Amino acid sequence: MTGGGATTEKNVVQTIHDTLFEEMKRDDRIVVLGEDVGARGGVFRVTHGFLKEFGEDRVIDTPLDECLIAGVAIGLAVDDMRPVAEFQFADFIFPGFNQIVQEAARFRYRSNGDFGLPLVMRAPYGGGVHGALYHSQSIEAFFAHVPGLKVVAPSTPHDAKGMLLQALDDPDPVLYLEHKKTYRLIKGEVPDERYTIPFGKADVKREGSDVTCVAYGLMLHLCLEAASRLAGDGIEVEVIDLRSIYPLDIETVLTSVGKTGKVMIVYEDNKFLGVGAEVAAQVAERAMFDLDAPIVRLGAPHVPAMPYAPTLEHWFLADADRIESHMRKVAEF
Amino acid sequence: MAKGKDRHTELGLKEEDLLEMYRIMLTARFCDERQWALNRMGKAPFVVPVSGHEAAQVGSGWAFERGKDVFCPYYRDLALVLVAGFTPRDVFLGLFGKVDDPSSGGRQMPAHWGSRKHNIITGSSPIATQTLHAAGVALAKKLKKSDAVVGTWFGEGGTSEGDWHGAMNMAGIHKLPLVLVCENNQYAISVHESKQVAGRVYQRAAGYGMPGFEGDGNDVLESYRLTKEAVDRARAGEGPTLIELRTYRFYSHTSDDDDRTYRTKEEVEEAKRRDPIPSFENYLMSVGVLDTDKVAELREETKTAVSEGAAEAEAADFPDPATATKNVYADLEVE
């Protein structure tokens, strides 16, 4: 973890850029591949300057074929390279679904350990950017359902660096989700030294004794804002950043619920069968008698994420006001 | 028998190559007969037959360098994996789902080949997914400036999948050291080639900037020649090749299929007249590599080896359910 060394303030996208850039200098097995990752430097500029520094062999502009990106990345990993596949938008990952779910996730299990795939798949996800139905989706539930995959969604620059390095060190396929609205919105101090954050460790981003609020991605930041408003009224909300969807750190949630007796899960994805459903089920299974209030899930309505017009996008996506109002109800129960 | 024309010397094949190719073709055929019988006896739930494809697989597979080159086969490639290093015992361990099954330790259905030791990349059931893995491995070889070559095998049905077109596209753009071998047996389960491919498979190569060739997949020497030329080009950095080997499968698609619903008995009998094994046998006798006594001896020897492999595999242990949660992840325990 991090010591007392120097830090630099960065936003999320700069952090991901710098981390990947430095790691590619350190490990020449790493190659990036995807659409527009070369000359364009990625549509979000994550690989800006990579082509010049590392050349065409290691910064590969692929044909416009997400199935190809996933399948070729698997082959690279088989031959002991360290591919980092970029899916330009999470919404476009589905042509690669078969390769990711049936192939990448199952390589180790189906070969009884003979083959493993050190493979990182990056995908910008999430909404609030006028991205409408096909540039806003949350895809974590599809993939977290699949044994053999690890699915992570860091929310801060600090976590983005430590978890990207962990993903690059990981012997198995990792889907590394980057909330695109946090890219430039969220800034923070990032240690200059190399450090990793183990998967399956949630982080208590704010301590409190009245309500436990579980979130990740953009919602984490909105929950923190709502929690700070409630603090003005003497209500202390403990805000937990899951960071890693699978493996899921339920212990940190249970410890908090043991203290607060009340839990809400806030997620941007459609509510039905989303990450919040799993967290709620595990809390119910293991901490029923710690609860002083019904478990609350604040997820998106059951319509495709997410309509375009500002009024419709706002209707779909929770904001700090909406979260605050739910938090108050839970606290007051 | 009259002395036939020597076709193998100019291909660089020696007598011991020919005998080994013949032995593997026989082994595959006898494995097939045994596994089909075991299925009908109720001892093997599922079989993917190879009979008819032996020349295409052994001829193409023989063009690769074992221990260096990489194989991405599909499920019908029993003879190919024998070339790559599998034994009959390995095949039957997989058939029965035994713990020592080298492909998966009894986790996958039979014929889902894989073995790091033999450079066979683990495969699945969805069609043609392995062709993209092959392109990825070939890209890695190219980036590492290795002179290893990757081969991938599939049926003509596989050439309809997007994965296959992606592999062709990637291979063509990057001039990858990849050889794509289509074993065209004219049927994707029941769907005839005429409803699968407009034009011919090998002609699709032109659209991806690579050469494409067709050949008689019932002729092991022809299958070898076409593939060897492609492997040599790939090794020399001259890029990928698509090869279409035309052949036929003698049994149904799998033990769960019934081919009488989509093709006539007469058609199958007609195809069996072009059985690759007797025709190779005749060639080997015509050039004096084999005689009738030697054929009988080799057949007996091979049949015995297959029987012993099957018996050993049948007697082997099944996997312990306590191990079923292992190897989902390298470093995580699951429930």
In short:
Chain A is built from 13 helices and 14 strands. By secondary structure, chain A is α/β, with parallel strands linked by helices. Chain A folds into two domains: 7-191, 3-Layer(aba) Sandwich (Rossmann fold), CATH 3.40.50.970; 203-332, Rossmann fold (3-Layer(aba) Sandwich), CATH 3.40.50.
What are the main properties of this structure?
heterodimer, A: 333 residues, alpha/beta, Rossmann fold, 7-stranded mixed β-sheet, 5-stranded mixed β-sheet, 13 helices, 37% helix, globular, B: 335 residues, 5-stranded parallel β-sheet, two-stranded antiparallel ribbon, 10 helices
Structural class of chain A: alpha/beta
- CATH arch. level architecture of chain B: 3-Layer(aba) Sandwich
Question: Sheet with the most strands of chain B?
Answer: 5 strands, parallel
- What share of residues are in beta strands of chain B? 5-15%
CATH topology of chain B: Rossmann fold
Per CATH, the architecture of the largest domain in chain A is 3-Layer(aba) Sandwich
- Give the CATH H-level superfamily of the largest domain in chain A: Thiamin diphosphate (ThDP)-binding fold, Pyr/PP domains
What is the chains' assembly state? heterodimer
Rg of Cα set of chain B: 20 Å
Most extensive chain-chain interface: A-B, 45 and 44 residues
Mind explaining what this structure looks like?
The complex is a heterodimer of chains A (333) and B (335). In chain A, the strands form 3 sheets. Chain A has a 7-stranded mixed beta sheet, with helices on both faces. Chain A folds into 2 domains: 7-191, Rossmann fold; 203-332, Rossmann fold. Helix content of chain A is 37%, strand content 20%. In chain A, helix 3 runs parallel beside helix 4 (97-103) and helix 9 crosses helix 13. The relative contact order of chain A is 0.12. Chain A has helices at residues 12-26, 50-54, 66-78, 97-103, 107-110, 140-144, 157-169, 182-185, 218-231, 250-260, 275-287, 310-316, 320-332, and strands at 7-11, 30-34, 59-61, 82-86, 120-125, 150-152, 174-179, 187-191, 203-206, 211-215, 237-241, 244-246, 263-270, 296-300. Chain A contains 13 helices and 14 strands. By secondary structure, chain A is of the alpha/beta class. Chain B is α/β, with parallel strands linked by helices and 335 residues long. Chain B has a single domain (9-313), classed as Rossmann fold. Helix content of chain B is 41%, strand content 9%. Chain B has 10 helices and 7 strands. Chain B has helices at residues 15-40, 54-61, 78-84, 88-96, 129-143, 162-174, 220-235, 265-272, 276-286, 292-315, and strands at 70-72, 150-155, 178-184, 187-188, 191-192, 212-216, 241-246. In chain B, the strands form 2 sheets. Chain B has a 5-stranded parallel beta sheet with strand order 1-2-3-7-6, with helices on both faces. Classes of the chains: A alpha/beta (333), B alpha/beta (335). The A-B interface holds A 31, 57-58, 62-63, 65, 67-68, 70-81, 83, 95, 98-99, 102-103, 106-116, 147-148, 150, 170-172, 200, 247 and B 70, 102-105, 107-108, 112, 114-116, 121-122, 124, 126, 129, 131-141, 143-144, 162-163, 166-167, 169-170, 173, 326-332, 334.
